[in-house]
Specification:
about 70% helix; mainly alpha; binds flavin-adenine dinucleotide
Length: about 100
C-alpha cells in the first residue's frame, strides 16, 4: 500500500440506480479526513497505514452497494426490460386505436 489513494467515483464508480454516488463520495472524504487527522503527515509509514485503514473501511461498505446498484441497474436496463416496455407501449397504442 502506497501513500496515495482515491475516493468517490474514481475509487468505486457506481450505477446511478441507487442514487448513492455522491453520498458515498462524501462519506469517503469524511473517513479519509478522520484517519489522516490522527497521524503525523511527515511520517510516511503512518500515512500509508492510515490510507490502508481508510481503504479497508470504505471497500467494506462500497463494494456490496456497487454490486447491488449494478444488479438493480441491469434489472432496469436489460434487454428483457426494454422489450417488455416496448411491448407495453405497443399494446397501449393498439388499444387506443380500437
Ligand atoms: C445519470 C446519473 C445520475 C446520478 N444520480 C445520482 C443521485 O441521484 N444521487 C447521487 O448521490 N449520485 C448520483 N449520481 C452519481 C454522482 O453524480 C457521482 O457518484 C458523484 O458525482 C461522484 O463524485 P466525485 O467527486 O467522485 O466525481 P465527479 O463528480 O465526477 O467529480 C470529479 C471532478 O474532477 C474533474 N476532473 C476530472 N479529471 C480532471 C483533471 N485531470 N484535472 C482536474 N479536474 C479533473 C471533473 O471535471 C469533475 O468535476 C448520478 C450519476 C449519473 C451519471
Amino acid at each position: 500500500m502506497g501513500s496515495i489513494t482515491l475516493l468517490g467515483d474514481a475509487a468505486h464508480p457506481i450505477r446511478p440506480s441507487l442514487g448513492l454516488g455522491t453520498t458515498l463520495a462524501l462519506q469517503d472524504a469524511v473517513t479519509l479526513a478522520e484517519v489522516l487527522d490522527v497521524i503525523t503527515p511527515t511520517d510516511i509509514p503512518s500515512v500509508s497505514a492510515a490510507l490502508s485503514r481508510y481503504e479497508h473501511k470504505r471497500i467494506e461498505i462500497t463494494t456490496p452497494l456497487q454490486q447491488k446498484a449494478s444488479e438493480q441497474g441491469l434489472a432496469f436496463y436489460s434487454d428483457d426490460q426494454a422489450d417488455r416496455l416496448k411491448m407495453g407501449c405497443e399494446a397501449a397504442l393498439a388499444s387506443r386505436k380500437q
